[in-house]
Design brief:
The chain has 258 residues and is of the alpha/beta class. Helix content is 47%, strand content 14%. This is Levodione reductase.
Length: 258
């Protein structure tokens, strides 16, 4: 992928899953990579395999912890070229009347507050540079209603609202902002989601797993590398006019589990 050598890339929730895959792929492409994660053990494991990567244990919902990360990057890099605001949580599964306000707020905070803090920091640098790219991780749940997952769907729609607004706000400064909308991504996180949803729906987990594929036109799951392919494209010069887009990488979702 052209134009990635030496680019400064910050990835939130980069210790495992999609974020760790992003870190590996950008590192392999020659980018300078920084990752943060609240899971210190996962962070150490991922960073240990990527020489030169900056890693900071931080909860994206905590401004003081994120400021430690930003201060390090200000010192080491003095700017940033690509932000992957990837942190989030699946939140609780259940009927709206059975969910607690505490769980609702925790889900919105993890998915939105972290993106807000990271985008605000990145915007200051990118405005001074006159260029940059931001990629916010939403979900196909940010494009559809999602029964039994109201906090998650609301948060991911909010991510797209933030992306659309920032694309307009920052476009005059040469900054591109897009959202990535993954479908069902293979891995431990999705298995945890299936367990929670199966319980909420009163279904066998294997039956629910089949339903996820049935609702996709290509009848397939998504891999983290599928998503990384899009992230690398959006960091490159090849996407210089792509902004304000909610890009679904999902094999074309036709329905969500309901």
């Amino acid at each position: 992928m052209n134009g990635l050598e030496g680019k400064r890339v910050l990835i939130t929730a980069g210790g495992s899953g999609i974020g760790a895959c992003f870190a590996r792929r950008f590192h392999a492409a020659g980018a300078k990579v920084a990752i943060c994660d609240m899971d210190a053990e996962a962070l150490v494991e991922t960073a240990g395999a990527l020489p030169g990567v900056i890693s900071v244990a931080a909860n994206v919902t905590q401004p003081d912890e994120m400021q430690v990360l930003f201060d390090q990057l200000d010192s080491h890099w003095g700017g940033v070229d690509m932000l992957c605001a990837n942190a989030g949580t699946g939140g609780p599964a259940g009927a709206i009347e059975d969910l607690s306000l505490e769980d609702w707020r925790a889900c919105l905070s993890a998915n939105l507050d972290g993106a807000f803090l990271a985008c605000g920091w990145a915007a200051r640098h990118m405005k001074e540079q006159g260029n940059g790219s931001m990629l916010l991780t939403s979900s196909t749940a940010g494009l559809w209603g999602y029964p039994m997952r109201s906090p998650y769907a609301t948060a991911k729609w909010g991510v797209i609202g933030l992306m659309k607004t920032l694309a307009s706000e920052l476009g005059p400064y040469g900054i591109r902002v897009n959202a990535l909308c993954p479908g069902a991504v293979e891995g431990p996180r999705m298995e945890r989601v299936i367990t929670r949803e199966a319980e909420a729906h009163g279904l066998d987990p294997e039956e629910l797993r089949k339903r996820y594929v049935t609702g996709v036109a290509m009848k397939t799951w998504v891999t983290a590398d599928d998503l990384a392919d899009t992230a690398l494209f959006l960091a490159s010069d090849a996407s210089s006019k792509v902004s304000g887009q909610a890009l679904a990488v999902d094999g074309h979702t036709e329905s969500l589990v309901g």
